[in-house]
Amino acid sequence: FAQMGKLGKKARKFAKKNLQSVEKKNRKQKPFLKRKFAKRDGRRDAEDEEEEEKMIEQPLKKRCIEESPKDIVIDAVFDKDEGVVVLDCGDSDSDGYLAEVLFLTWRFDSAVVNGTQGKISGTELKKQSRKLARLNKKKLVDETDSDTTKHKVLSGSALSSFSNLVDEEQSVQALTSLLNWYRAACHYGHEPSGITSPDTCYDIEDSETFANVMIFVLQKADHTFRSILGLSGSANKEKVLKLNNNNPKWDSVKPLIKSFFRSTIHLVKQAADLEITVFALAQLRVSVVFFAAFPDLLNKLIKLSVDLWVTGEETLSHQAFLILKDISMVFNSECFDACFVNMYKAFLHDCDIPKANSEKRLPLLRDSLVELCSQDMQKSYTKASVSITQLAKLLKMALATKNKEAVEKIHSEHYTSCLDLWVSFIAANVQGNDLQSLLYTVIQVINGVATLFIGPRYLLLRVKCIQWLNHLSRASGIFIPIASLVLDMLEYKTTNDGEKQKKKFEAVSTVKLPKNWLKSQNFQEQCIFSVIELLANHFAQWSFHISFPELATISIMRLKNFNERSTMEGLKRVVKRFIEQVELNIEFVQMKRDEAAFSPNDQQAIETFLQLEKRSKTAPYTQYYQNIVDKGLGTKVKK
Amino acid sequence: MGKNRRKDKAIPPPQLPPEVREEEIEFSDEDVKYVEENKDYARFVSRIDTTAINRQCVGEAKTVEDKYEEERSKKKVQQEEKESNEIQVDPVDVLPVKTLDGKLHFRTVTKKSKLAEADPEEAEEDVLEDEHILNKSQRRAKAKKSKKEAKKQETEVPEEIIQEEETPQAAVLAEVKEELSAEESFENKKNRLAELGMLLLSDPEANIRSLKEMLDISKDENAKIVKLCLLSVLAVFKDIIPGYRIRLPTDKELEMKVSKEVKKTRFYESTLLKAYKSYLQKLMAFERQSVYNQVANRCICTLLDAKPHFNFRDNLLTAVVRNISSPDEVVRRLCCSTIRSLFSNEGKHGGELTVQAVRLIADQVKSQNCQLHPNSIEVFMSIRFDEDIGKRDREEANKKKFKKNDKRNNQEEQNQAQENERKKSKREMMSKIRDEVNADYRGVTFEPDAMERRKMQTETLSAVFETYFRILRKTMFSVGESSTEEDTTLNPGAFGPHPLLAPCLDGLGKFTQQLDLDYIGDLMNYLKKLASSSSVSTTKKKNSKLLTVSERLRCCLVAFKVMRSNLNALNVDLQDFFVQLYNLLLEYRPGRDSGEVLAESLKIMLCDDRHQDMQKAAAFVKRLATFALCFGCAESMSALVTLKNLLQRNVKCRNLLENDAGGGSVSGSIAKYQPYATDPNLSGAFASVLWELNLLTKHYHPAISTMAGTISNMNTSQNQTFLSAVTPQQAFADYSLLKESFEPKSESRKLNNKRKRESGGEGEDVPETDMVELKKKLKENFTILRGIKVDERVRMEFEKKKQSNMAKKKPTKKQSNVEKKKPKSPKSKKKF
């Protein structure tokens, strides 16, 4: 089988023509082989998982300094099982496809011939198909010189009659030929021109018919399959799998479904037009359940969807994601793994290549990945834990040794995107799940990253870190002090003259700003705006907490200091306004708490303190903060 | 090795040497051609020429025997034709062939006598003489052609022959030789070094002369060899240098008749010393060359570290101190660690080097105007000042020399007086000879008596403090008058504005015990000024001369340490330092300032302070709580630990834990809390409540949240006597990110899958596809595809036609294919 794949086209042609027994044998063996491979792969998957876990546990026990930063990989954490999946896809892609398709089409060919004559029933068809196919082929080869009637052209009228048959009687024969036409349509123009395969006989009369057959099949196929099989609309996977056993209906429909899937996947792969792809994907999604019977096709679908998810335009990406999500929900956990690992890798890989719209796209991808993770917390927790441990290990090494390689790895897009992903994941699921230890580790990692990179050039990274912390704090309701991290940025302006020469890392990265920006006024504004926005966010979270005045004390003092020294009027005004607002709120809280009769250790009373005001959202500070968020002071002006 | 070779020699020569002999005699044109033709052979020739013939023959015969044979037979023919004048040639030529055919030993043996003309003496001598020496001489001959130790004639002879007879060949040969020798000689020299070294180590007395030879190798041009040489000589010296200082005999002593043994020893010592001296000279010279800088420094440091008692140590020390602030980090570290080890292992040199080193460093600080690497001062931290030196021998001398320390030491001295008396009488009883010997001995011994050591220690101390005060004064000066002129003239070098201040303050903090009371007043004034030289409040903005927060914290720290170690003997008001600390808490920045120093200040100034003002304590409690809200785990934790400590010791401060309207009875003069007050006594902290603790219980770090919880639940009424054992420093270290394990604990957890699918809502987010639009697109798609298809088909047909035209005989099937497609194409063409 593997060797077959290597043979050239000519050889294959030759074989098809002259060595039909071999072909036949191949056909017989193929499904068997495949199943065997699939099984083995599945098992290997499980083993790899265990192995990998062991492997990760071990180095943890060692001291991290013994390792080189090269050993710590972010994206390839789940590489092993993932690799198998990809390989699997590749294999099934190679040679088998054509043979299988040929096989199908021959059969359909004969089926159509016979079906229109109405002499052979659907069940018999299966048994005789192989023989017929061979005969048919011979016949075809013999006949072609004289007989061109085998060349079929689908006309609009034929289509409508077929579709009626399918619609009203759920006729398998009609569906078969429709699917055949559908296949031809899907492959239209993509068929390798050199091969004189029998399906060149299928031709489509005009564009109208082409569109109709596509739309009809895509829309109705799932429904028809279900009604033939007698399944309700919400058939789950178990039901579909049960069908496998000696159900004559299933036997007759299975190849049809397979053909449908194959054709559709091909269509999705090839279709240049966005809407067609989206539509086809959407229709395919409805019948995702049936993929249970075709594991290799499923793998193909996963791979395809991941590709589309990462690279596709927004709606397409979303549609692809929905398919992935469905797959991971409907099927077993291995599928979830496959989906997740592929998506995770694709996501991180995508982060590496900066694109024009990546600012918009990456969050979308991240969010959808988080959504997927949230489907299976048990699995995702392990994955997150493993991945975060890797991040932490790298960071720890960088902190301890200042190893240049490790440090560079940390301020890569890879690292930050990965961190970003898990931050979102934790933030999304922290309520209702016990994620405390993950949360804690991630916070420490972020703190570590923030302290590892000091200096104005890492402004963006610093801002990102603080945003993460704010995000986590908001989502979980715990207190994460960020003031000192933020206030560092105030000093950037004054220090950068002296410290500029000290920056040694020259590598250009999106995380790091080029040197020449640092002097620009824009940069300084940027610093201050970010400070204000981040602090405002932090304060907004605790603006009604009883210790707000103390929380703001040091920050206000620093800001006041800054205002005294600063020479830029525009900035001073913004800062001044912020100080005023915060001080107003301080006064407000102070006034309220002076009235309070409870002590700091009275948790319950404090919990209820100012809760009413918090909900009302009319407090001046809340409005001020809202205003800042709307303006997006810090985040808007990135360049 | 040597033995084996000798044995080898004994057996095989019969076969080959004749060849050699013959060559040696005549180098004709054919030979030259020959050599050029066969480079392998040329190599052989070159070797023969230069080295002992015997060995060469053995080696060659073994390795390229076959070639040898061919060559020999060829040569035979040639030579037989031309040269008949050589009597030796013919028989010898005949011989090898015969020997190769059958192993006719006897014949060769007879011939051996003839060939023996060349190297017989040597062989015989070799056998007779001591193997050891022979080995050496032979190897030397091989290894160092350049040396030309003319002991062996036969080595010279071939060289001469080459030069004389084969001038055309010489160039080629020389090249080949060079190529060969580059690698070989490197290996040889290495081996030579190793051999010599081993010899010296195994029996230094006998082989002391080889030191010189080893040293000579360092003249080599190859840097690698030189480095190797330096290092191996270092190893030798490290091993053979005696445990005493060598004193060369005076002229008078030389005149005296001495035994053989003594003579031998004297010779040994003087040779050693000479070699050592020249080695050191070399090192000093190399140290100035950038290539050898590191190696030379390594040697110097190792020597000084290992043999600090030996002659010429002063020179070594000077070199080390000179490099103590070297820009090369490796060198600097080496030097610093050497000096440190000198300080901490005074037993090796009796403390003399300590004094010298400190003195030298002090001089260097002075000459460099305090612009040195901090490491150069940090080494002082390793000096140990022994309070008990000379307890036994402390006498009147003590009083003279340590007037300043009298106050502290008087008591001890009186206790010791009696004991000393006894000792003194004992010593008086010692014989004169003994005294003389002692006097002599002291010159070389490392155990100077206590007086001596005292004296040295005083000198050390004065040098250390001189350095420290110099730095302080310098800093004061630059801070006080940080006008523009200063900035330009004293523009800090690579070491920052006050490179030595931090280690200086650390040192002062450590040696407060030894500090003279007279100086303390001045010192405190200095510190006060330095501590209050705020970088924020001053109007000069970009003044890099100002002290950093850490430095100012250090000043406060030192002041406290000084006061504490002197039992608070002086009436110095430390209030100012508290004020500084109070304000520095707000200025602290984690990345920029050292958290360790902060934690230490918290510990020394707040936790250890015995009698605290209540107001002040409350002010600090409040500020620490506020501080904990803004900073990372480590800082927060150390602040909380201090806070807890303060609360535990000050009952009244616990009022802050309760929301007592109006601040209760202790509210003090200020009715309202002033968070930004600069003076702790004026902050009105008693009017506040520690609300921060509540927010801190929500801290993400479990330890901090627990800590805050415990503190807020402290009992206000009863006096809790036990104090927590954790110090702020400990807390800071434990909770810093570096210590963080970063391992998510995988305990059992509750995880809710969001598996409850909102199946209804799923469809909503899918945008509805516009069917009409879709249809249109599909149609377009079809049209395009068909266009492509048709195009392709036409092209294919065209090509096929062309093919069929070219090759007229075509299988029918293909033709039929073409025919089959023909009807299709017009159809499709029609459509468009």
TrEMBL record, chain A:
<keyword id="KW-0539">Nucleus</keyword>
<protein>
    <recommendedName>
        <fullName>Nucleolar complex protein 2 homolog</fullName>
    </recommendedName>
</protein>
<feature type="region of interest" description="Disordered">
    <location>
        <begin position="1"/>
        <end position="55"/>
    </location>
</feature>
<feature type="compositionally biased region" description="Basic residues">
    <location>
        <begin position="25"/>
        <end position="38"/>
    </location>
</feature>
<dbReference type="InterPro" id="IPR005343">
    <property type="entry name" value="Noc2"/>
</dbReference>
<comment type="similarity">
    <text>Belongs to the NOC2 family.</text>
</comment>
<feature type="compositionally biased region" description="Basic residues">
    <location>
        <begin position="7"/>
        <end position="16"/>
    </location>
</feature>
<dbReference type="Pfam" id="PF03715">
    <property type="entry name" value="Noc2"/>
</dbReference>
UniProtKB/TrEMBL annotation, chain B:
<feature type="region of interest" description="Disordered">
    <location>
        <begin position="799"/>
        <end position="832"/>
    </location>
</feature>
<feature type="domain" description="Nucleolar complex-associated protein 3 N-terminal">
    <location>
        <begin position="189"/>
        <end position="279"/>
    </location>
</feature>
<keyword id="KW-0175">Coiled coil</keyword>
<feature type="region of interest" description="Disordered">
    <location>
        <begin position="60"/>
        <end position="88"/>
    </location>
</feature>
<feature type="compositionally biased region" description="Basic residues">
    <location>
        <begin position="821"/>
        <end position="832"/>
    </location>
</feature>
<dbReference type="Pfam" id="PF07540">
    <property type="entry name" value="NOC3p"/>
</dbReference>
<dbReference type="Pfam" id="PF03914">
    <property type="entry name" value="CBF"/>
</dbReference>
<protein>
    <recommendedName>
        <fullName>Nucleolar complex protein 3 homolog</fullName>
    </recommendedName>
</protein>
<feature type="compositionally biased region" description="Acidic residues">
    <location>
        <begin position="156"/>
        <end position="167"/>
    </location>
</feature>
<keyword id="KW-0539">Nucleus</keyword>
<dbReference type="GO" id="GO:0006270">
    <property type="term" value="P:DNA replication initiation"/>
</dbReference>
<feature type="domain" description="CCAAT-binding factor">
    <location>
        <begin position="553"/>
        <end position="708"/>
    </location>
</feature>
<comment type="similarity">
    <text>Belongs to the CBF/MAK21 family.</text>
</comment>
<dbReference type="GO" id="GO:0003682">
    <property type="term" value="F:chromatin binding"/>
</dbReference>
<feature type="region of interest" description="Disordered">
    <location>
        <begin position="394"/>
        <end position="429"/>
    </location>
</feature>
<dbReference type="GO" id="GO:0005730">
    <property type="term" value="C:nucleolus"/>
</dbReference>
<feature type="compositionally biased region" description="Acidic residues">
    <location>
        <begin position="118"/>
        <end position="129"/>
    </location>
</feature>
<feature type="compositionally biased region" description="Basic and acidic residues">
    <location>
        <begin position="62"/>
        <end position="85"/>
    </location>
</feature>
<dbReference type="InterPro" id="IPR005612">
    <property type="entry name" value="CCAAT-binding_factor"/>
</dbReference>
<dbReference type="InterPro" id="IPR016024">
    <property type="entry name" value="ARM-type_fold"/>
</dbReference>
<dbReference type="InterPro" id="IPR016903">
    <property type="entry name" value="Nucleolar_cplx-assoc_3"/>
</dbReference>
<feature type="region of interest" description="Disordered">
    <location>
        <begin position="114"/>
        <end position="168"/>
    </location>
</feature>
